[in-house]
Amino acid sequence: MGSKRYWLMKSEPSSFSIDDLSRSPDQTTCWDGVRNYQARNFMRNMAVGDHVLFYHSNADPPAIVGIAEVVTTAYPDPTQFDTTDTHYDPESKPSNPRWDMVDIRFVRKLVRPLTLDELRKESTLKGMVLLQKGSRLSVQPVSPLEWRHILRRAGR
DNA sequence: GCCAACGTTGGC
DNA sequence: GCCAACGTTGGC
């Protein structure tokens, strides 16, 4: 068993919130709809058991609100072949799927959500992908140090 | 609603 | 290969 990796995944609570995740069957959902190559590549690097920070973007306030875990490795996102889906990609062929997804399962909500504002005040977190100017990556790596610091700040 | 920053597309 | 145009993200 190799050491687990840490990630952050963004979701707009108006479309899928941490509560939606906790109410999902098995408290699990497939992370479909990612259409960014960098984000896809990060998902391809995920392993079962990896830890995930669940972040509410376009929220008031934007914040890390919970913890999830990766329960499958990456596999083809079926919405890319669904002509009725907004994420349909006519260029992607079933013989060579372009877009992948993983399944993640709810672990817990943070006792205290950590707002973007608070995160910005932490010098330890200066390097977080989330906090970089113009950063829009919806799936991104988190360092073990950042993870530890965030959990401590969140009151465990 | 605004708009800056980013990624992608396509003409040349 | 360049770069303008466009669509999207996401904080404010």
Produce a short descriptive summary:
The chain has 156 residues and is of the alpha+beta class.
Termini, distance in Å? 25 Å
Give the beta-strand count: 8
CATH class: Alpha Beta
Q: Tell me the radius of gyration.
A: 15 Å
In percent, how much strand structure appears in the residues? 25-35%
The order of strands across the largest sheet is 2-7-4-3-1-8
Helical amount: 10-25%
In round numbers, the mean pLDDT is 95
Shape: globular
Spell the H/E element sequence.
EHEHEEEEEHEH
- Overall structural class, as computed from helix and strand content, comes to alpha+beta
> Can you tell me the CATH superfamily?
ph1033 like domains
CATH topology: ph1033 like fold
SS field, number of helical segments = 4
Uncertain segments are none
Describe the overall structure.
- By secondary structure, the protein is an alpha+beta fold.
- It has a single domain (6-153), classed as ph1033 like fold (Roll).
- It is built from 4 helices and 8 strands.
- The protein has helices spanning 18-23, 37-44, 116-120, 144-153; strands at 6-11, 28-30, 51-56, 63-70, 75-76, 100-101, 103-115, 139-142.
- A 6-stranded mixed β-sheet has the order 2-7-4-3-1-8. A two-stranded antiparallel ribbon has the order 5-6.
- A hairpin with a 6-residue loop joins strand 3 and strand 4 (63-70).
- The two termini are 25 Å apart.
- 30% of the residues are buried.
- The model has no long low-confidence stretch (mean pLDDT 95).
- It binds a DNA duplex (12 and 12 nucleotides) through loops.
